[in-house]
From TrEMBL:
This is Transcriptional regulator STERILE APETALA. Residues 1-29 are annotated as: Disordered. Residues 1-14 have a biased composition (Low complexity). PROSITE patterns: WD_REPEATS_1 (PS00678).
Length: 440
């Protein structure tokens, strides 16, 4: 199917711009009365257009040009509503948390992205003690998933343990174990996905169980959903946000996607045939450490994007799984490198060509060719990150240019993740590496 649904656009009356009330003041110029709402809307549109056509860092120069026209135009730089609209549209910031104003938030995001482009970071390692929940020799040391929030990092392992760290102090906070029950296969309790915020931790295991814990409280871990691996298959990937949880299953035909309301924990939808060809591989995951079967991500606009080794797909969550885009890749997809962030997705084919597309229209933003041996990848709003042969490399994904590789080599990487400030990777030597691009 090739029908598409447009993502929020910045063209012609941008819906992301929150206009001021009619009672707001008007700024006078020497040629008459200039309405402040008009100037703010103009500055917003110019900045967003620059971010779309040139890159997010270009928005700052576009704004500077506007503010230098005259003192009248410069006055709108003091509007916190303008900076709020810009931070939401360009940097996808939902709420103001750590900084005192939206202008400071915008400057912080711009500086962090500039650091990302210029390889200015601080590197740290987080060490953890192997869990005592491990009944599989050294298999419990294998990190299966990583997740980041503003102040926390979570790592999920093949023995079912999830370790939570405080990023500012680099200290280990706690370890969570899935509730005990009869297991079908030695790896049925392996972590298959983590959803993390600074207030809540949600994680899933291959047998379909979903557990939840409050962060920084004494509330115990609880099971939010009891999996049914016999009837659903293995839960091979799990992702989401505060509003949605989505699971990608393999093992039973016609049950590839599960969609939950992330606030009420209600299961809303089961269906889809995407992983039917990988059914046997899904069952093998329960008993042996095989390759990555598929990935799924929740993106802006209440949509999800998923892939297997041969197919990629976008579907609506509000419409309970209605497919809006689907494509087969006859030469295959490198599933471990596939990712999505904000309103873009990175789909790498077996020829090592990664195409960055805007979810919804699926228009191609750029493409770049990765190096030999790449097996893991991730992305944020402006950069693609890959690992292969012990080297982590970074591309900007506005035009597809290669930027640099990290100074640190990471051997035997088994998990990789990025957000707008951090990149994290876990290696087989029980070490989590953290690169911080927002350090002052």
């Amino acid at each position: 199917m090739s029908t598409s649904s447009s993502s929020p656009s910045t063209q012609g009356g941008d819906s992301d711009y929150e206009g001021p009330s009619s009672s707001r003041s008007r700024i006078r110029s020497s040629n008459g009365v200039w309405p402040e709402p008009f100037l703010e809307a103009l500055a917003f549109q110019v900045a967003v257009d620059a971010s779309r056509t040139i890159g997010r860092l270009a928005a700052a120069q576009a704004l500077s040009n506007i503010f230098q026209v005259c003192s009248t135009w410069r006055a709108i730089s003091r509007s916190d509503l303008l900076w709020q609209n810009l931070a939401r549209s360009i940097w996808s910031v939902g709420e103001l948390l750590a900084r005192e104003s939206w202008r400071e938030e915008y400057i912080y995001r711009h500086r962090t992205s500039s650091n990302f482009r210029s390889r200015r970071y601080e590197h740290a390692t987080l060490h953890f003690i192997p869990t005592d929940n491990n009944n599989n020799d050294d298999d419990g040391l294998s990190c299966r998933r990583l997740a980041l929030s503003d102040h926390h990092l979570a790592a999920g392992f093949s023995d079912g343990a999830v370790q939570l760290f405080d990023i500012p102090t680099r200290l280990h906070l706690s370890t969570f174990y899935p509730q005990h029950r009869d297991r079908l296969g030695r790896f049925s309790s392996a972590v298959s996905g983590i959803i993390l915020s600074d207030s809540r931790l949600v994680f899933a295991t291959l047998d379909g169980d979903i557990h939840m814990a409050a962060v920084n409280t004494a509330a115990p871990l609880r099971r939010a959903h009891l999996g049914d691996v016999v009837n659903d298959g293995a839960l091979v990937d799990f992702a989401g946000c505060h509003r949605w949880w989505v699971g990608l299953y393999a093992g039973v035909p016609g049950r590839a996607f599960h969609i939950w309301n992330g606030e009420t924990e209600e299961l809303l939808f089961i269906g889809g045939t995407m992983t039917d060809p990988e059914a046997v591989m899904g069952w093998h995951l329960l008993t042996e450490m095989t390759g990555i079967i598929g990935r799924i991500r929740v993106v802006r606009g209440d949509m999800a994007v998923a892939c297997t080794g041969l197919r990629a797909m976008v579907f609506h969550l509000l419409s309970q799984g209605i497919v809006v885009w689907e494509e087969e890749f006859r030469r295959g997809i490198i599933v471990g490198v596939f990712d999505a962030y904000g309103d873009t997705t990175m789909i790498p084919d077996a020829r090592r060509v990664a195409a960055v597309r805007r979810v919804g229209s699926m228009e191609e933003v750029c493409r770049f060719t990765m190096r030999e041996g790449v097996s893991f990848g991730c992305m944020n709003g402006g950069y693609g990150v890959t690992w292969g042969g012990g080297v982590i490399r970074v591309w900007e994904i506005e035009h597809g240019h290669y930027l640099y590789n990290f100074r640190e080599r990471i051997e035997d990487c088994n998990a990789l993740i990025a957000d707008e400030r951090f990149v994290a990777a876990c290696s087989d030597d029980a070490t989590i590496h953290l690169w911080d691009f927002g350090a002052q």
